[in-house]
């Protein structure tokens, strides 16, 4: 059995499920009693992969974020994919926070992943390909050991392991 097996390490979210989670959170913001008559809102920009949360004050903004995270978790979207931005004052005594949704593996993290895989002392090769890392090896057990290691010691954003062959 001289075949090589491989998989790709990526960081991406399901855009459809993210859209559904945002839609559900927006709906809850419009019907919840404690949000009636307030500026609590969520805007989702798919093109830029950003979320803009608005609220009357910081506490309300945190509650809106909590609602969004609950909907994301129910839809299977990794909650730690949301990278918080800076809290800023908006018009009419409200606050706003623009958050980005993490996508792709950053080059520094990709190099760190390759370095970690080499330090594992298993017979696999790691190769950076754009915003993903491809791991190849002869034994499936070695690849599974790499996956277990990366799940434990990977970057703070979510990783997925795809195209396992």
UniProtKB/TrEMBL annotation:
It holds the Pfam family YajQ. The keyword tRNA processing does not apply. InterPro entries: UPF0234-like_C, UPF0234_N, YajQ-like_sf, YajQ/Smlt4090-like. The keyword Nucleotide-binding applies. Keywords: Nucleotide-binding. Belongs to the YajQ family. Nucleotide-binding protein. PANTHER family: UPF0234 PROTEIN YAJQ. This is Nucleotide-binding protein PZE19_17835. It comes from Paludisphaera mucosa.
């Amino acid at each position: 059995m001289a075949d090589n097996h491989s998989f790709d390490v990526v960081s991406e979210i399901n855009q459809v499920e993210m859209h559904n989670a945002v839609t559900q959170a927006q709906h809850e913001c419009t019907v919840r009693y404690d949000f009636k008559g307030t500026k609590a809102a969520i805007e989702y920009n798919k093109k830029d992969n950003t979320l803009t949360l608005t609220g009357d004050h910081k506490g309300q903004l945190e509650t809106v974020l909590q609602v969004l995270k609950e909907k994301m978790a129910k839809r299977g979207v990794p909650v730690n994919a949301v990278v918080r931005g800076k809290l800023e004052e908006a018009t009419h005594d409200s606050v706003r926070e623009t958050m980005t949704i993490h996508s792709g593996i950053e080059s520094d993290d990709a190099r760190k992943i390759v370095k970690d895989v080499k330090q594992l002392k298993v017979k696999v090769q790691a190769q950076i390909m754009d915003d993903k890392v491809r791991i190849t090896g002869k034994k499936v057990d070695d690849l599974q050991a790499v996956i277990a290691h990366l799940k434990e010691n990977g970057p703070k954003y979510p990783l997925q392991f795809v195209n396992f062959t």
